[in-house]
Amino acid sequence: MTMLDFFHFFRKTCANIACQFHSCLSYDIVTTIFILFIILVSESVNFDPQNMPKHVAIIMDGNGRWTKQKGKLRIFGHQNGVKAVRSAVSFAAKYQIKVLTLYAFSSENWSRPETEVSALMTLFMKALDSEVKKLHKNNIRLNIIGDKSAFSESLQKRIAESEKLTENNTGLILNIAANYGGYWDIVQATQKLALQVKENQLDIAQITPELFQQHLVTEAQPQVDLLIRTSGEQRISNFLLWQIAYAELFFSPVLWPDFNEDSFSEAILAYQQRERRFGGC
After folding, report:
1. Candidate list 46, 63, 80, 109, residue with the active-site label
2. CA-closest candidate to residue 276, choices 227, 225, 242, 235
3. Is 28 a catalytic residue?
4. DSSP state of 250
5. Model's pTM, two decimal places?
6. Catalytic residue among 5, 51, 61, 169
7. 62 and 24 assigned to the same domain
8. What per-residue confidence (pLDDT) applies to 280?
9. Average pLDDT, the chain
10. What DSSP letter does each residue of 263-280 carry, written as one string?
């Protein structure tokens, strides 16, 4: 039995126990089993260091549904989603993943209610203020990828300051995709190359997939190896369309605010069990 199979077996077993027994004693038993399981996992989850994904991208989905379950305002879910971001960043740094890209705000999200968008922008500003020094202290480089021109001048300034502070860090590269869309990324890269051709700086015959990739917002970063989407939804939502060409996809049922190191571990374990062919046999 693989560790991933054991995760599912344990969940099913505990669910059956909880359904069949309702006494205080049975609750204590289930709690004890859970604690023992956590100890077992902490001691036995050993990733293959030769098969770790270099670039992990996550579509952080489920804040709204998580909030609805708790009868709170939507911003409450986004606030708790920041905690999950901290956990994911800590995990990626701990296991020496080279690049972590988080989908925070898509170019389509502007269509949400004005109050929610405004609250998200405020939360974004506060997160930059509270987190960037911690990132810098932990040698993490922060990149905000997307069309930043749509943000307020104050937010653009804060983004530039945050990126400048961490630009020479050599550890984890943390990309936060904000006002980002895969179509937009491909179009802006095409426009850059077209301008170079127009100004006779580049010949059309020189354009290759490798050169095109360098003009995307992720530039020379490795292509995505593992794409995770939380909340159980199974679509890519216009995210990193070029960069995920050969990525392994993992759809987690966990809502984003509940996504933790165990959830991330499950995705990595699933990734390491797959045979990547890159279009070959």
Report:
1. 109
2. 225
3. no
4. E
5. 0.83
6. 61
7. no
8. 77
9. 89
10. HHHHHHHHHHTS---TT-
